[in-house]
């Protein structure tokens, strides 16, 4: 088990969840050190998606604590967790296909809005100033992700790779403390994966803390500072990419006992 770090922005302790009689996540502990990337990997059915849903308030743990900068966010709704700084992308995408690229990013900014319903109805100066600030931030993100030329296109017209990139922009406008990337490389071609690696590396270099859930092991090994491995809902390894790559329990989980012995 990884030791708790005083620099951890996210501390997960004893995270457990049952679906009826099924123990989906069992006593999982995770730390994300501020400004680093933790990859969460495991075979299909290992409990990764359930863990992400627990961390982001989609479902409530049976037991355990989720401390974001010392604040326990267990029991928060997904919107409250996002406002607290736990922001995610989605494996299967949750974009509004009939809205424009810019409008999709701006929907993510709703969680940062400070103006009231009265301000919105009357469209007073306070509301317009906030709207202009969000629009400026959104265009900065689109420019950085090379999507500014598509700002006025409907999302449904975009190639799949650009839609996945747009997911990240919409998450970033919320100014997350921890960004959870759920299978961001799924469906991307090799060139798009390289662009993803470059951009995620840039975000980490700026001090953003990231939890990456990913099947692409090449991407994981290039990006991760640490790797945690789940299997049947339990954490079976936690260490540097080199440590995890040679861990016998990880090899067994992915390759089967005979294959792992042969690999050794």
Structural commentary:
There is one protein chain. The chain is an alpha/beta fold and 264 residues long. It folds into two domains: 174 residues, P-loop containing nucleotide triphosphate hydrolases (Rossmann fold), CATH 3.40.50.300; 77 residues, no CATH class. It has eleven helices and ten strands. Strands 6-7-8-3-9-10 form a six-stranded mixed beta sheet, with helices on both faces. Strands 2-1-4-5 form a four-stranded antiparallel beta sheet, with helices on one face. Helix 3 runs parallel beside helix 6 and helix 10 packs across helix 11. The longest helix is centred in the middle third of the chain and has 20 residues.
CATH topology heading of the largest domain: Rossmann fold
Summarize model confidence as the mean pLDDT: 88
Overall number of domains: 2
Shape: globular
Coarse structural class: alpha/beta
Provide the CATH top-level class of the largest domain: Alpha Beta
Strand percent estimate: 15-25%
Total number of β-strand segments? Answer: 10
Largest sheet: 6 strands, mixed
Name the CATH superfamily classification of the largest domain: P-loop containing nucleotide triphosphate hydrolases
Rg measurement, Å: 19 Å
Q: How many H/I helices?
A: 11
Brief overview:
The chain is an alpha/beta fold and 264 residues long.
Which keywords apply here?
264 residues, 2 domains, 23% strand, Rossmann fold, 10 strands, alpha/beta, six-stranded mixed sheet, disordered C terminus, globular, 40% helix, single chain, 11 helices, four-stranded antiparallel sheet
């Amino acid at each position: 088990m990884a030791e708790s770090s005083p620099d951890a922005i996210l501390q997960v302790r004893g995270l457990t969840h049952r679906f009826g009689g099924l123990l989906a996540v069992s006593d999982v502990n995770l730390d994300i050190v501020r400004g680093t990337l933790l990859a969460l990997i495991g075979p299909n059915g290992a409990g990764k998606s359930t863990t992400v849903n627990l961390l982001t308030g989609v479902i409530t743990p049976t037991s355990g604590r989720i401390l974001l900068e010392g604040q326990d966010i267990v029991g928060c709704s997904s919107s409250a967790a996002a406002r607290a700084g736990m922001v995610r992308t989605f494996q299967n995408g949750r974009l509004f296909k009939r809205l424009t690229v810019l409008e999709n990013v701006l929907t993510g900014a709703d969680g940062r809005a400070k103006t009231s319903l009265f301000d919105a109805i009357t469209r007073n100066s306070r509301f317009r100033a906030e709207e202009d600030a969000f629009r400026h931030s959104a265009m900065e993100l689109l420019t950085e992700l090379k999507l500014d030329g598509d700002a006025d296109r409907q999302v449904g017209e975009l190639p799949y790779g650009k839609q996945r990139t747009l997911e990240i922009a919409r998450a970033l406008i919320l100014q997350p403390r921890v960004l959870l990337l759920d299978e961001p490389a799924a469906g991307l071609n090799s060139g798009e994966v390289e662009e993803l690696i470059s951009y995620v590396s840039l975000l980490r270099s700026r001090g953003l803390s990231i939890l990456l859930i990913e099947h692409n092991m090449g991407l994981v090994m290039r990006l991760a500072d640490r790797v945690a491995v789940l299997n049947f809902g339990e954490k079976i390894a936690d260490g540097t990419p080199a440590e995890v790559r040679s861990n016998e329990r990880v090899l067994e989980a992915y390759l089967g006992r005979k294959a792992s012995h042969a690999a050794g």
